[in-house]
Amino acid sequence: MRTVAIIPAAGSGIRMGSGRAKQFLDLDGRPLLAVTLKSFQLCREVDAIILVVHSREVDYCRKKIVERFGLDKVIKVVPGGKRRQDSVRLGVEATNGDYGLVLIHDGVRPMIDEEFIEQVIAAAMTHRAVITGLPARETVKEIDRTNQVIKTYDRKIVWLVQTPQVFRYEDILLAHKTALLEGWKEATDDSLLVERLGIPVNVIEGSENNIKITTPHDLEMAKFLLKQKIK
Ligand code: C5P
To answer: The domain that contains 8 carries what CATH number?
Structure first.
């Protein structure tokens, strides 16, 4: 099955506290987003990439990221939406149904490598939907608005979910269209929308190095990991 990778990178990155959105900050002499994209460029199982960025960054990304770093698998750079969920939907729609498998990966997870991308795509041959994550190492509790604990989860059954996530094109398109119709607005994770359709979703174990760059500390950690070539 042909596979397209959708890379949502249209966020503003306000938690980083820098003037520039985190996906454009420097990592090892390149914009962080270029580091993420390179793994998809190098992965043999990925046929095409659709990059989703803020409308004011489309030209910058075409010239300074896609052309400059020779990322010729990027077939489109499309403007994103207000929420991550909107950006992903716009990316899925931009594939025009030309790819049977749709892989989604956060632009701000630069530590992904091509071998792991291949593994996730391979897992999608035996499972209808595949997501990646890590078993919780700490105890997870649910709290109310006053920080009072309501519930403690059994750690053995709790996983922390990451990207990449891979879906059948029809499933992810229907999930996002249904979300739009039903007013499900705040999905921080695409698989939630697919689960709501009753489609089985399987998790495979990811890597603790596949961090999402959210704070300056995360950026320093990514620099360290890259230096160790742990990517
Ligand atoms: O906000 P969060 O850290 O969950 O963002 C995950 C990814 O989604 C980031 O790569 C971010 O740029 C992207 N995003 C997006 N469109 C938005 C908000 C976030 O593409 N409106």
So the answer is: 3.90.550.10
